[in-house]
């Protein structure tokens, strides 16, 4: 290639650019960065393809190196990578490397390739090497299990942590870290007896172990707290049971009948209750629904005492805001309750609720007393309509 003359006019000659450099020079900056990202040395993201829909050969070759060598060498390589991630607190990545190390140790040994040809090997050396490898494998396996237990503990996979500690102790029953991590995981799950046991076994091996001593104090404090909570729960349940039994006795002694169904209404905190929950002779009160069926309206009395009359409540409830014709006055209404047999019983407005319920003719359904309040002028018509609906005469 000719160049303009320089100096004395003689042409300056240069070698042609290598093909690879020429190809790079022809690429844009983005294309060059993308190409470099496919090279393991320069990768910023994990690229799996070679750009033509196939695999990245350089990357696959690098991955394959991780599985080159004996089981001990492969497992140790993964263990070291797991340790690096653990030191950086990259618990998920660390756990994956320990998974691979354990899997490598459990994989069947590779058979020699027949194409490599027969080698003359001293049988004594093979036995010694196998024995040494077995010892190394056990050491690596123990380290991987106990380190994976740490990863699971940090990731709050407490049951997996306990399983890894158990696997560690099967390999080495004197591994104090396994007792510590197992006890910590058990404590997190409130498995207090197991935590106490693991901590005690660890301290039996290393009585001066400061972390185990501190953990023992935590376990003791948690046990005290849980015992207190459990005691309070039992006392609370015993109290509720006693109150329920007292209420049942109070209702039975008064001859008041009750019944529950699957369609119980939501009364929130309203309930049949005694003034003194532990004294069956104290005053009973009941949630009462006052129904006005001729106008599809109602009122709710949260606590209607057994010693009170209907009049006492109607006096503050009336006049009703929706009663435009003023049909509902204390003197101009009648009250009815359904009987157990399906009929109606008329309530004297000056009769106490306790006396009505104690007659044995009515019942409290789902903890609620229903009383229908009807204007006197419409009571006969309403009763006839009720009988037709019930199919009675």
> What's the CATH first level of the domain at 273-390?
Alpha Beta
Structural class: alpha/beta
Given the structure, what is the number of helices?
13
Can you tell me the CATH superfamily of the domain at 273-390? Phosphatidylinositol 3-kinase Catalytic Subunit, Chain A, domain 1
How much of the residues is beta strand, in percent? Answer: 5-15%
Shape: elongated
What's the end-to-end separation, in Å? 125 Å
Strand-and-helix sequence, N→C? HHHHHHHHHHEEEEHEEHEEH
Description:
The chain contains 13 helices and eight strands. By secondary structure, the chain is an alpha/beta fold. Among the domains are: about 20-65, no CATH class; about 275-390, Phosphatidylinositol 3-kinase Catalytic Subunit, Chain A, domain 1 (Ubiquitin-like (UB roll)). Strands 2, 3, 4, 5, 6 and 8 form a six-stranded mixed beta sheet that branches. α4 (about 70-85) packs antiparallel against α5 and α5 (about 90-105) packs antiparallel against α6 (about 125-155). The model has no long low-confidence stretch (mean pLDDT about 85). InterPro entries: Csn1/TTC4_wheel, TPR-like_helical_dom_sf, TPR_rpt. Pfam families: Wheel.
């Amino acid at each position: 290639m000719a160049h303009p003359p320089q100096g004395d006019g003689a042409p300056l000659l240069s070698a042609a650019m290598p093909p690879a450099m020429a190809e790079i020079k022809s690429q844009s900056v983005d294309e060059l960065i993308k190409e470099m990202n496919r090279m393991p040395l320069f990768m910023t993201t994990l690229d799996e393809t070679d750009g033509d829909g196939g695999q990245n050969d350089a990357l696959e070759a690098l991955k394959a190196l991780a599985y080159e060598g004996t089981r001990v060498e492969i497992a140790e390589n993964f263990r070291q990578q797991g340790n690096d991630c653990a030191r950086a607190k990259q618990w998920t990545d660390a756990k994956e490397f320990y998974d691979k190390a354990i899997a490598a140790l459990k994989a069947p040994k590779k058979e020699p390739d027949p194409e490599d040809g027969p080698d003359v090997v001293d049988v004594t050396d093979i036995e010694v090497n196998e024995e040494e490898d077995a010892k190394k494998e056990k050491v690596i396996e123990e380290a991987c299990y106990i380190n994976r237990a740490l990863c699971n503990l940090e990731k709050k996979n407490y049951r997996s942590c306990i399983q890894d500690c158990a696997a560690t102790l099967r390999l080495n029953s004197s591994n104090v870290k396994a007792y510590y991590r197992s006890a910590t995981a058990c404590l997190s799950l409130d498995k207090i007896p197991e935590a106490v046991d693991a901590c005690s076994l660890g301290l039996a091996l290393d009585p001066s172990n400061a972390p185990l001593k501190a953990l023992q104090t935590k376990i003791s404090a948690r046990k005290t707290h849980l015992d207190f909570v459990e005691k309070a729960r039992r006392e609370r349940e015993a109290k509720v049971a006693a109150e329920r039994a007292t209420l049942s006795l109070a209702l039975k002694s008064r001859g008041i009948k009750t019944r529950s169904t699957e369609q119980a209404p939501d009364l929130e905190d309203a309930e049949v209750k005694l003034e003194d929950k532990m004294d069956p002779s104290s005053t009973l009160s009941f949630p009462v629904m006052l129904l006005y069926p001729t106008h599809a309206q109602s009122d709710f009395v949260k606590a209607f005492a057994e010693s009170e009359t209907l009049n006492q409540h109607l006096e503050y409830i009336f006049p009703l805001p929706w009663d435009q014709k003023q049909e509902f006055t204390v003197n101009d209404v009648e009250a009815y309750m359904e009987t157990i047999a399906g009929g109606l019983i008329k309530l004297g407005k000056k009769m106490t609720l306790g006396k009505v319920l104690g007659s044995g003719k009515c019942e409290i359904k789902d903890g609620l007393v229903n009383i229908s309040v009807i204007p006197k002028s419409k009571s006969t018509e309403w009763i006839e309509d009720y009988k037709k609906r019930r199919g009675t005469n």
